[in-house]
């Protein structure tokens, strides 16, 4: 067995920023490395894993793409994370580089702490933390502090935290990153891009490399092989949750909605746009049956931006059913969202 530690790249970033797109690009352009991928997402539909397995490559075959859908990776370290990594390392041809795609709500720092686990720390190292950000969302100020709360409290208790739940997750992810990928450059103009860049720089406690991308396309040599050993550098990566050992995901809620078959793609897309517009849904994704079509429709909503494409035929052993994972902030009207999607 080699004494060299196997490098692991952690890919973080808010819901729908483009993490899976980046991982997919790296699988397709591995720069000579034999890769393995661990993907963690909310909801048990396994959409990301399915997308990634769809582009499996000899350098990263489908059985090297492992999905962990039982909740947050960093909260299931002993039960899920350690055994999964251990099994990957025990393969006859172990991976030369491991990519971990966290869920969009995950805080990367607790995951970094998992690398201190005795079984792991001598065998793997965190090569780098990459935070993917949606340039349009950042430019729009969707992760900005809650300004009315700041104003109301200005003369009161300075220690009160005025960040919105979205802001906190974004800040933690950027603060932990070695590189920030500003993705979706097609959705912003030059001024928006400059705004997004300066917001990222302002949130980062250290100088951070910011790279602009379309669909996560970046030269793998720029993001892999950083040698950051981030697990040994935790103090430089502040988190909102440093003061308490535990963290939770109570600020957000996830539901899975079963839908009827739809007559047209436009009808589905219209519904997903409407739940974002009217109920503040942050993310919706899953597969939908469109009447008369042998292919399944992959639907992806990020706020009111919705993409839908037929990705592959339904297979004979597969239940032809339409299901979407829907994520919103705590308290979103789940009954109304369900009714809107099922109506
Ligand atoms: N316009 C545009 N859309 C993009 C770009 N990159 C990704 N998308 C779309 O954004 C949606 C979300 O992309 P993903 O790569 O799944 O994002 P993610 O961060 O993995 O999402 P979660 O795992 O749910 O948090 C998909 O519909 C993508 O096709 C881009 O550069 N421009």
TrEMBL record:
It holds the Pfam family CobW_C. Transmembrane segments: none annotated. Residues 275-342 form the CobW C-terminal domain. Keywords: Chaperone, Hydrolase, Nucleotide-binding. Coiled coil: none annotated. One of its GO terms (molecular function) is hydrolase activity. InterPro entries: CobW, CobW-likC_sf, CobW-like_C, CobW/HypB/UreG_nucleotide-bd, P-loop_NTPase, Zinc-reg_GTPase_activator. GO terms for biological process: cobalamin biosynthetic process. Zinc chaperone that directly transfers zinc cofactor to target proteins, thereby activating them. Zinc is transferred from the CXCC motif in the GTPase domain to the zinc binding site in target proteins in a process requiring GTP hydrolysis. NCBIfam families: CobW (TIGR02475). Belongs to the SIMIBI class G3E GTPase family. ZNG1 subfamily. This is Cobalamin biosynthesis protein CobW. It comes from Rhodoplanes roseus.
